[in-house]
Amino acid sequence: MTDIRVQICYARPQSHDMRELDVREGATLQFAIEQSGILRDVPEIDLAACRVGVYGKLKALDTVLRDGDRVEIYRPLVADPKESRRRRAVKKEVAKSR
After folding, report:
1. Tell me: domain 3-97, CATH 3.40.605.10, correct?
2. 0.70 exceeded by the pTM?
3. Helix (H, G, I), strand (E, B) or coil at 43
4. Average pLDDT over residues 20-41
């Protein structure tokens, strides 16, 4: 088997962590995340709670990676996007009526 190169990315509000590593062809997303050491170095990451993806598309942890894939670990949402849009719309309407 040959090795493939992948990136593991995790972004925080103040910084980001990006790691490149070689894994065996046929490696899963979860295996690559574990091998990168990011779970040890960033203890706030909980794969049971965080969603993951490849190039912005949500994927399951058992997804087989391809050479050059960028694995992204997403933080849980702090606010519901729909509720945030509603609040902005109400705020905009109040400002208009003044």
Report:
1. no
2. yes
3. coil
4. 96
